Amino acid sequence: MEALVPYKENESSYFRIAGGNQLKGEIKVQGAKNAVLPVLAGVVLNRGTSRIKNCPKILDVECMIKILKEVGCKVQWEGDVLIIDSKNINTSIIPEKYVREMRSSIILLGSILGRMKSVKISFPGGCSIGTRPIDLHLKALKKMNVEVVEKSGYIECKTSKIIGNKINLDYPSVGATENIMLAAVLSEGETYISNAAKEPEIIELQSFLNKMGGNIQGAGTDEIIIKGVSQLHDVEFTIMPDRIVAGTYLAAAAITNGEIHLKNTINQHFSSATSKLIEMGCYIREYSDSIYLRAPERLKAVDLIRTQPYPGFPTDMQSQFMSLLTNCDGTSVITETIFESRFKSVGELMKMGANIITEGRSAIIKGPTKLNGAEVFAKDLRGGAALIIAALSAEGVSIIKDVQHVLRGYEDVVGDLKSLGATMDLINIAGD
Questions:
Q1: Distance from C-alpha of 176 to C-alpha of 178, rounded to nearest angstrom
Q2: What is the pTM of this model?
Q3: Distance of alpha carbon 425 from alpha carbon 412, whole angstroms
Q4: Where along this sequence does the record place binding of phosphoenolpyruvate (predicted)?
Q5: Binding residue per annotation — 371?
Q6: Of 39, 37, 31, 41, whose CA–CA distance to 79 is shortest?
Q7: Which is deepest, 78, 217, 244, 261, by most CB within 10 Å?
Q8: 34 is in an annotated binding site
Q9: Rounded Cα distance, 77 and 95, in Å
Q10: Of the candidates 425, 424, 421, 423, which has an alpha carbon nearest to the alpha carbon of residue 23?
Q11: Which of 260, 233, 235 is nearest to 248 (CA)?
Q12: Which domains are delineated in the chain?
């Protein structure tokens, strides 16, 4: 199978962006990264074939494909449709070399356990944006008749049968909610999740599992009920559009005082972001499955952006909006309540001339500031996207290194932005 993205692990790659161009045009938004990964984990519960349409060709999907093939799945692409034959899964051990590439691999804990009644998986990797304790996941599984052992950097789980139970999450964790759903769909009895995450991706996972024969209700509320079924069947499922990619491109258009029409959107999924764009002075018009933005010549600062679980402002959009706020007239404040290390891109933005002060979990951004091209490093997925946004408005040329972080979640960020008028390239240089 060909590489999904134009990036090779043995190469030193970087983005080269000449800033100053006003972005204008139309883009179709890709399938959602945070929806497709739990869906791909869920296919192992099916002893048949799954066809996943609108599947984004990103590095995280490539990593998940490697894991699926490792456990015995047959995988092939037909355009943007990923076809997985999971009849002959033959191992419940997830290799460390793949798991450490991305934190989302922990979702396989619930699905492999549901299929094989045992699983061995190393602690997950992915973006380094602070501690990601999986205690909520393990605590829930223990209540479902699962024996959990942690040793030598691995988690080992086994059970004679998964039994439904009442689970109250101490925090509405997306990953824990998804893992419980995946583990419970083939369980004995009923599982009740209280204080469940309400993100659109939870609703998407419920839709997928139900289309495959599951019996789940309540996703999108704080209580989800999973009634265990004996088996699942073949499925064809279309992945919803990516709300974070949509918000990223809206921010990119806004910082360049441009205009953009995004197609294939579910606008209520990112309304917390569009409300802030309107507050900045942007004109926004929403349609049934698309959205239009036109930015003013001068953007206004916003008093406070506070990240919260859905439907609050998403932590995955915070870094991109920090870049945007450098071009807003006045002082803005961002408070990060989800992850404690989401400000890693601040130092890189300051290399470009940004005026940002961090105080604990808050960042104070004073603008507008004239950004200048610089050599900077993507520290994580959304921080890398933030640097792209800043570079688009900067004077001169910017070099953004460690692009693998960005390619984990953006299918064709170079092609998309170039189609809007950006001067941007992905440069691959052969390593030593």
A1: 5
A2: 0.95
A3: 11
A4: 33-34
A5: no
A6: 31
A7: 244
A8: yes
A9: 23
A10: 421
A11: 260
A12: 11-23+299-430 (3.65.10.10), 33-238 (3.65.10.10)
CB 299 within 8 A of CB 321: no
Q: Is residue 16 marked as binding?
A: no
Mean pLDDT of 410-421: 98
The answer to whether 132 is annotated as binding is yes
Look at residue 376 and give its three-state secondary structure: strand
Identify whether the C-beta of residue 325 lies closer than 8 Å to the C-beta of residue 301. Answer: yes
Q: Compute CA 165 distance to the chain's CA centroid, rounded to the nearest angstrom.
A: 29
Residue 373 Cα distances to 341, 346, 419, angstroms? 25, 15, 21
For 46, counting Cβ atoms within 10 Å of its Cβ (0-12 exposed, 13-18 middle, 19+ buried), the class is: buried
Give the strand pairing for 154-158 and 147-151: antiparallel
Q: Is 328 a catalytic residue?
A: no
Reported as a single tens digit per residue, the pLDDT across 14-53 is 999 999 999 999 999 999 999 999 999 999 999 999 999 9
Q: In b/e form, how buried is each residue of 234-272, taking b as 16+ CB within 10 angstroms? A: ebebebbbbbbbbbbbbbbbbbbbbbbbbebbbbebbeb
